[in-house]
Amino acid sequence: MKQRYTHPALLFSTLLVCAPCVAQVVINEVDYDQVGTDNAEFLEIKNIGDALFPLANLRVVLINGNNGGAAEYRTIESSSWPAIAPGAYFVICANQGLTLNCDHVATPATNLIQNGSPDAIALVSVLDGTIFDALSYGGSVPGYTEGTGTTAEDSNAQDGLSLCRWPDGSDTNDNDADFVIGCPTPGAANQLDPTNCSITTNVQNIRSEDILALLPDANARRIGFIYKRDAAAPVNVSVFTVQGALVASRDLGVVSSAYVDIPVAQEAQLYLVRIQVGDERITRRVVMP
Fold first, then answer.
1. In what order do the strands lie in the sheet with 58-64?
2. For 8-19, how does the pLDDT look when each residue is reduced to its tens digit (9 = 90+)?
3. Can you list the domains of the chain with their CATH numbers?
4. d(Cα 55, Cα 45) in Å, to the nearest integer?
5. So what's the pLDDT on residue 69?
């Protein structure tokens, strides 16, 4: 059954549930809460259908669920948005300098997406009000919940976490079943290893289970890497800017442990570090302190 979006004043008389919503495009990942100021928020949309979808006909509606209500507090849309191909992603962010693969920069640059308990997001047709997908997080928001709202919540106690569909793109029309805490992967398939994807802002203690530790030094414009594993394997370390430009790469050969110091001359805040160990890839984000 198709759901219709109505003005918030008419919400309770016309929009009681969103089950099921019409999903060719879905809210695939949201990072709405960071340590300190929320300035790296993003929302990722994925086309899970088998045809092009015109994003120019889409409106992102952000809903405040405070005190059991459902009040619209922000909308994001653009007639210039492209058609999105099957399997492709579209990323809306607050700060392009801190978000990989950002396709549309929305305002404000901080506190773009509310932190929930509960709040909601809906993908709505600008043509006829059809709700294509809805996510209620931190609980259930009336009219914007598929099944039950999520019990999983993003956190400001640790960076490198996001609320994401698992498996990537899966939609059972139940928010609580579809969304888990993973690591931020805007514009790419969702991952469930927040340790290996967490942001590093200082030296990490090396434990026996660690594979890669990062030691950023903003004053010297360099990133140090400590790699260790039980067995030797071919290892390559690469550093990218948030825009995807390769900054540096080091082939370490076949090793079980190594220390590498790589200069990063570009004045960037956020880097992506990728270590290739045989056929396995590990990625971490690094914010220069």
1. 71-76, 58-64, 119-125, 131-137
2. 433 333 333 444
3. 8-195 (2.60.40.1260), 198-287 (2.60.40.3080)
4. 10
5. 95
Dist CA 91 CA 104 (whole Å): 7
* Paired residues of 216 in beta bridges: 223
Phi, psi of 98, deg, nearest 5: -120, 10
287 class by beta-carbon count within 10 Å (0-12 exposed, 13-18 middle, 19+ buried): middle
Residue 130 has what pLDDT? 94
pLDDT at 209: 41
pLDDT in tens, 212-243: 666 777 677 788 877 788 889 898 888 877 66
Pairing outcome for strands 119-125 and 131-137: antiparallel
Taking 70 as the pLDDT cut, the residues of the chain under it are 1-23, 159, 193-214, 218, 242-244, 266-269, 289
- Give me the pLDDT at residue 49, please: 95
R_g of the chain, CA atoms, integer Å: 20
Q: What is the 3-state secondary structure (H, E, C) of the chain?
A: CCCECCCHHHHHHHCCCCCCCCCCEEEEEEECCCCCCCCCCEEEEEECCCCCEEHHHEEEEEEECHHHCCEEEEEECCCCCCEECCCCEEEEECCHHHCCCCCEECCCCCCCCCCCCCEEEEEEECCCCEEEEEEEECCCCCCCCCCCCCCCCCCCCCCCCEEEECCCCCCCCCHHHHEEEEECCCCCCCECCHHHHCEECCCCCCCCCCCEEEEEECCCCEEEEEEEEEEEEEEEEEEEECCCCEEEEEEEEEEEEEEEEEECCCCCCEEEEEEEECCEEEEEEEECC
Strand order from edge to edge, sheet including 89-93: 104-105, 89-93, 42-47, 25-31, 162-165, 179-182
Question: How far apart, in whole angstroms, are the C-alpha atoms of residue 209 and residue 192?
Answer: 17
